[in-house]
Write a structure and sequence with these properties.
Helix content is 35%, strand content 24%. With 314 residues, the chain is an alpha/beta fold. The chain has two domains: 10-146, 2-Layer Sandwich (Alpha-Beta Plaits), CATH 3.30.70; 152-309, Molybdenum Cofactor Biosythetic Enzyme, Chain A (3-Layer(aba) Sandwich), CATH 3.40.980.10. It is elongated.
Length: 314
């Protein structure tokens, strides 16, 4: 199964649909509750709940998620609404099944939504087949999904980013930079444009000079690596803090909480984040794992800061 340990727990939603085509006489029997097996819609609804809960047992690579909410709605096809649901030109009676699921979890709930409407459709087929020889299941599809890192709501323009590695040893050529390079790779995975990359020593003046230069060029986001710990030369936080117009404590809290779930050493980070004019600055640890965990915690949601700084609000 795919490794999802790097994912954050967020609100996920999914909406799916299925259609059971049938004779008009069958629809009337359902409306009048004259089906021999009783209220087939409520019967099918209950089956959909049970089926959705079994999704990870049916699909090998599907991770179990906690289904926090699931709602099924039914709508009968009419000549007025037919083309809204079915692409065929000739009208047929039928039942439109819509399922909407929600969870707060590390992975999406779209497969549960699709399984749920499929089981509802199959249950209707099973209960109606003695009365109707023209039954057909059609149009099983995902209507929408939200949540997770694939959600497009976080930014409306390509973020421009600069990466600043703060390290005496790396600046002197005694150590190869890995954390800064990794930061670039992870940012590019979210279509961010890396406009600059620099290595400076652990000196407040050098760090501040480079950050000011990037702010002057209106770089959207600056990510530093290194200098956030307790070491005798760690001074990135002290260099960045006086430059900030506004601190973004929530960004740091998100990184630390995410990291703490994976290693107790996360509590040793003194990271800081905030804004300078229309630029957002985030300080990351100097370790490869620290950079990966911190960026996994805040990407791509942190990119929404640009829209806020430009007056777009939430």
């Amino acid at each position: 199964m795919r490794d999802i340990t790097n994912k954050s727990t967020t609100l996920r939603t999914a909406k799916a649909q299925a259609i059971v085509l049938c004779d008009a006489a069958t629809i009337e029997l359902i409306r009048e509750k004259k089906i021999p097996k009783g209220d087939v819609l409520e019967y099918a609804r209950a089956a959909g709940y049970l089926g959705a809960k079994q999704t990870p047992n049916l699909i090998p690579h599907c991770h179990p998620v906690r289904i926090d909410s699931f709602q099924f709605d039914f709508e009968f096809l009419t000549k007025e609404n037919y083309k809204q649901f079915v692409s065929e030109k000739s009208f047929r009676s039928g039942i439109v099944i819509t399922g909407e699921a929600k969870c707060v979890d590390r992975t999406g709930i779209e497969m549960e939504a699709l399984t749920g409407v499929s089981i509802v459709a199959l249950t209707l087929y099973d209960t109606l087949k003695p009365l109707d020889s023209h039954l057909e299941i059609s149009g099983i599809r995902l209507l929408e999904k939200t949540g997770g890192k694939s959600d497009k709501k976080y930014f409306t323009e390509t973020p421009t980013c600069a990466v600043l590695v703060c390290s005496d040893f790396t600046h002197q050529g005694k150590r190869k930079d890995e954390s800064g390079k990794l930061a670039q790779q992870l940012l590019e995975q979210y279509q961010a444009k890396i406009v600059d990359y620099k290595i400076v020593p652990d000196k407040k003046a050098a760090i501040q000079k480079q950050i000011r230069a990037w702010v002057k060029k209106d770089v959207h986001f600056i990510f530093t690596t290194g200098g956030t710990g307790f070491g005798p030369h760690d001074c990135t936080v002290e260099a960045v803090k006086p430059l900030l117009d506004t601190e973004a404590d929530g960004v740091v809290e998100a990184m630390r909480a995410y990291g703490q779930q994976r290693t107790p050493f996360a509590m040793m980070s003194r990271a800081i984040a905030g804004t300078i004019k229309q630029t957002t600055v985030v300080t990351l640890p100097g370790s490869v794992n620290g950079v990966r965990e911190c960026l996994n915690a805040i990407l791509p949601a942190v990119f929404h800061a640009r829209a806020i700084l430009l007056g777009g609000g939430h």
